[in-house]
UniProtKB/TrEMBL annotation:
<keyword id="KW-0067">ATP-binding</keyword>
<dbReference type="GO" id="GO:0016887">
    <property type="term" value="F:ATP hydrolysis activity"/>
</dbReference>
<keyword id="KW-0536">Nodulation</keyword>
<comment type="similarity">
    <text>Belongs to the ABC transporter superfamily.</text>
</comment>
<protein>
    <submittedName>
        <fullName>ABC transporter ATP-binding protein</fullName>
    </submittedName>
</protein>
<dbReference type="InterPro" id="IPR027417">
    <property type="entry name" value="P-loop_NTPase"/>
</dbReference>
<dbReference type="InterPro" id="IPR017871">
    <property type="entry name" value="ABC_transporter-like_CS"/>
</dbReference>
<dbReference type="Pfam" id="PF00005">
    <property type="entry name" value="ABC_tran"/>
</dbReference>
<dbReference type="InterPro" id="IPR003439">
    <property type="entry name" value="ABC_transporter-like_ATP-bd"/>
</dbReference>
<dbReference type="GO" id="GO:0005524">
    <property type="term" value="F:ATP binding"/>
</dbReference>
<dbReference type="InterPro" id="IPR050763">
    <property type="entry name" value="ABC_transporter_ATP-binding"/>
</dbReference>
<feature type="domain" description="ABC transporter">
    <location>
        <begin position="6"/>
        <end position="235"/>
    </location>
</feature>
<dbReference type="InterPro" id="IPR003593">
    <property type="entry name" value="AAA+_ATPase"/>
</dbReference>
<keyword id="KW-0813">Transport</keyword>
<keyword id="KW-0547">Nucleotide-binding</keyword>
Length: 306
């Protein structure tokens, strides 16, 4: 058995008509981690997930799930993974309890080992166990999708944009459940457009753009790639002309007396920036700084190959 939960090796997918959705993508998802898979719309994330789910045939390359090759051992590979798709997919005329029973049956889970109520409690839906699924709110349906993906107790769960269009309270509940799964040893793969979420949750992040892997690093290391830093300086008088200095990458005027200055951490420090403002004849009244975050890195990387 491989030590990686998922191994992707030179994965390629070309659709009819020549559209190349994946172009030689290779990476590993370490066991026991929360792994972020990020990229703009159309980058190839959903194609990759659908290959792992057995819904799309790859053109080239190799993919293994929990040590099982998706081509050579498709049943074992599928049994090792639970996938929460962006689309809501269950019969609206079944209750949540029935939905989970049916899904467990499809995975061959013996009746004695099925516990739909435990799953519904975990996603805060026990009080809706016997309501028609069509009567659930959008957020409840999203939680039911997570429970549905976990009926066969897979060691890996993939969450494809699980919090898209849901409110803050539900998002927090969902992430609390995901963290509890991960604490019990479940490997989590997450795609999200909420980069702040990815930064807070993920141990490691891979970024795909135009079908190519452009980054794959521990989250802290990825965030550390951002060299830009922003400092806001409120000065003691109205600014008639913007100060100039070689250490300023960009300077803008915000309101009458606040300068927003961008500089590179590898070329200057905040003290030099403030000194440059003072040498322009301004007294400093207030200072605030903003460190670069994952969003800055993401935008810089995707622009670079866009």
């Amino acid at each position: 058995m491989t030590q990686a939960a998922i191994e992707i090796d030179n994965l390629c997918k070309t659709y009819a008509g020549g559209k190349r959705a994946l172009d030689g993508v290779s990476f590993e998802v370490p066991r026991g981690q929360i792994f972020g898979l990020l990229g703009p719309n159309g980058a190839g994330k959903s194609t990759l997930i659908n290959i792992l789910a057995g819904l799309v045939n790859k053109t080239e390359g190799r993919a293994t799930i929990w040590g099982f090759d998706v081509d050579a051992h498709p049943r074992n590979a599928k049994a090792s993974i639970g996938i929460v798709n962006q689309e809501i997919t269950f019969d609206p005329f079944f209750t949540p309890r029935e939905t989970l029973e049916i899904q467990a049956g499809l995975y061959g889970v013996p009746k004695a080992q099925r516990d739909p109520m435990a799953l519904l409690r975990a996603v805060h839906l026990e009080d809706k166990a016997d309501a028609y699924s069509r009567t659930l709110s959008g957020g409840m349906k999203r939680r039911l999708m997570v429970a549905k993906a976990m009926v066969h107790s897979p060691p890996i769960i993939i969450l494809d944009e699980p919090t898209a269009g849901v409110d803050v309270e539900l998002r927090q509940q969902l992430w609390a459940y995901v963290k509890s799964l991960n604490a019990r040893g479940v490997t989590v793969v997450l795609t999200t457009h909420y980069l702040e979420e990815a930064e807070q949750l993920c141990d490691r992040i891979a970024i795909i753009n135009h079908g190519k892997l452009i980054a794959n690093k521990p989250t802290r290391e990825l965030v550390g790639m951002a060299q830009e830093k922003v400092v806001e300086v409120t000065v003691d008088r109205d600014v008639a002309a913007l100060p100039e200095n070689v250490c300023f990458q960009k300077i803008e005027l915000k309101a009458g007396r606040t300068l927003v200055i961008t500089f590179r951490k590898d070329q200057a420090n905040a003290g030099e920036v403030l000194g440059a403002v003072q040498s322009g004849g301004y007294g400093i009244v207030d200072v605030s700084t903003r460190e670069a975050d994952l969003e800055d890195v993401f935008l810089n990387l995707t622009r670079a190959v866009g």
